[in-house]
Structures are given as C-alpha cells and as structure tokens.
Amino acid sequence: MEILYDKPFCKISYRCEAQVPFIHTDWNGFSTSSQFRESCDEIISFMSEKRISRVVMDGGKAKVVAAEDQAWLNTDWAVRATDAGYRTCAIVIPKDLFGQMSTRQVVTQADQSKVTIRMFDDTMDAMNWIVTT
User: Fold this and answer.
1) Is 71 in contact with 33 (CB distance < 8 Å)?
2) What is the tens place of the pLDDT at every residue in 102-124?
3) Residue among 8, 75, 89 nearest 43 (CA)
4) 3-class DSSP state for residue 4?
5) Is pTM, for the whole model, over 0.90?
6) CB-hemisphere CA count at 13 Å for 23?
7) Nearest CA to 71 among 45, 33, 30, 31?
8) pLDDT by residue (tens digit) across 3-51?
9) Cα-based angle 85, 88, 89 (whole degrees, multiple of 5)
10) CB of 56 within 8 A of CB of 126?
C-alpha cells in the first residue's frame, strides 16, 4: 500500500491485491465542500497517473455529503473521472444515517451505464469484490 494523500477527513492510497491495482479512499467524518471536492479531484489525478480504473470508496466513517456536492459528483466529477478511466467502484456504506442517505442518493443518480457500482457494509467485502470484478 502506498499512501498518496493524507488529510484528517480523507486518506487516499494505491493498493494492489491479487495483482489487481485500485485506489482506496478512506473517508473520515465531515469534510467541507472544498475539502470533499479537492479529495475527489485527487482521486482522478491518481487514477490518471497510475492508469487505474477501480476505486474503493470506504465511507464507513463518513458523514453526510451536501446536496450540492452530490450533484457535482454525479455531473462534473463523474464525467472527468470516466474520461480518466474510472470504470468500477465499490462503496462501503457509512454507519452514520445521514451519510447512508447521501451515499444512496449519489448511487441512485449515478450513470451506471459507464461505471459499475456496488455497495457494501464491510471494507474487506468491498476490496474482495473490486479485485474479482
């Protein structure tokens, strides 16, 4: 594992399990809109730099994502991410109720014709799926 970005609200690392590379994003608590968007943009940079199409979004410790950031994620960010090669995403559902609601809202509105998305309750299940898909 190689840590690529390390902030109190988000840690992004490069991982390779069973010879399958992926980006692992570990969200922690609340993040402001600018912090959230900066972190998401870093994911795109690392996907492009390392030529990776798979991402584990570990939201187990995440809190709510603002409605404006949800919309931005599914429009602006998603287009740039798929252009960078984003194709598969395993999402670990937050334990926080409001985090769960915002995560489900993002997934419901996502264009799943370009990206395969699956939600999990457990980080290990998400990582096992991402390397076998």
Assistant:
1) no
2) 999 888 888 888 999 999 999 99
3) 89
4) strand
5) yes
6) 32
7) 33
8) 999 999 999 999 998 899 999 999 999 999 999 999 999 999 999 999 9
9) 120
10) yes
